[in-house]
Amino acid sequence: MGLLNEKTGFYDMPMYLDEAFLDWTSFEPSNLCLYPIQYLTDSLGGIMKSELVVIGADSGCGKSELANSIAFINAGNKKNVYLFSLEGDRYEVIQRFRYRQYIKSCYSSGRKEMVISYREFIHRRNLPKGIEEEILVIDELFKAKFKTLNIYNREDVLDIKKLEAHLEIIDSKADLVVLDHLHYFDFLSDNEHAEITKIMKSIKRLQDKYRVPIVLVSHLRKKDKGRVFPDKNDFHGSSNIVKQADTAIIIAHPEVVTEEDNEKYQEQIQNNIYKTGIRVAKSRTGFGEKVVGVVDYDLNKRGYEREYKLSIIGDKFIMPMDRSKYPKWAINAVPENYYAKN
Predict the structure, then answer these.
(1) How far apart are CA 214 and CA 200, in angstroms?
(2) Alpha-carbon distance 291 to 313, whole Å?
(3) How far is CA 122 from CA 60, 115, 125, 152, in A?
(4) Residues 3, 23: Cα–Cα separation, whole Å
(5) pLDDT given for residue 218 in this prediction
(6) What is the pTM of this model?
(7) Domain containing 169: what range?
(8) Sheet holding 214-219, edge to edge
(9) How many structural domains is the chain composed of?
(10) Cα Rg of the chain (Å, integer)
(11) pLDDT of amino acid 77
């Protein structure tokens, strides 16, 4: 894409219009990168070719698992995905997906007696007979299905210069870049706010230069006592995290406010199925940040359910939305009679 007048650095309107039209008509919907959570797919459609998506979550709410799932689902759709996994053990990415596939296989084949916890799986305790052979079969399936997934070799710490060098190399190949996560970048000074601001501006510049979608994971601030659900001001480190993003997604468990909430949360702990809120706190394509999708996360199966409910959120409340008022895009929301049964 060239400028009509290189001396001034501006497009004239006819060239700008022509190039923008060609760019728009050359994009195929099949080229969208996908979200692994149905609520995000329904509400946002997918990840555009030139989009910086920031995902923030409280500790333990699965931000890394979501980032890894985004990488896997798109590699499974033959997209060239580059995953910079900077948190946890270097083999944690695949161990979690091996485990998930194993558990899925146990439930689908009626072998519930073979189900073990992820902790048991990692610690190699109480392993069912024949599990290693089954994992080798899963590995062969993964090699065939996810061969376009590339995982960063963490021999060196990642800074913005190294990231730019990598993007320069993979420019023409990459369909999606996933960075997990922002606070594990190498900071060149002790001023965290300034360093995060610098990194975010650099990532946005690189995303704009290469026009490749980037998904970036970030911490949220420590919970405030009065906080019912985090908003875009709760990203930890700098307001530039959200300012530079095209889309900001927040994942959190709604806070326990009443005794009834407390009883429901105890049931979640007992059943290992947690009500998880997903909020689109910012979207350049237009989306109401007061809407929260409430999705069941099954810790046993390590995955989100397909159906969801919608809630409206304010500063001090979160309230279920009337099912009759759901927007048209909520096609996979809970059935009309859900509230009568639950």
Answers:
(1) 12
(2) 6
(3) 18, 13, 8, 22
(4) 15
(5) 92
(6) 0.88
(7) 33-86+152-341
(8) 149-151, 81-85, 176-180, 214-219, 52-57, 247-252, 273-283, 291-298, 303-313, 318-320
(9) 1
(10) 21
(11) 94
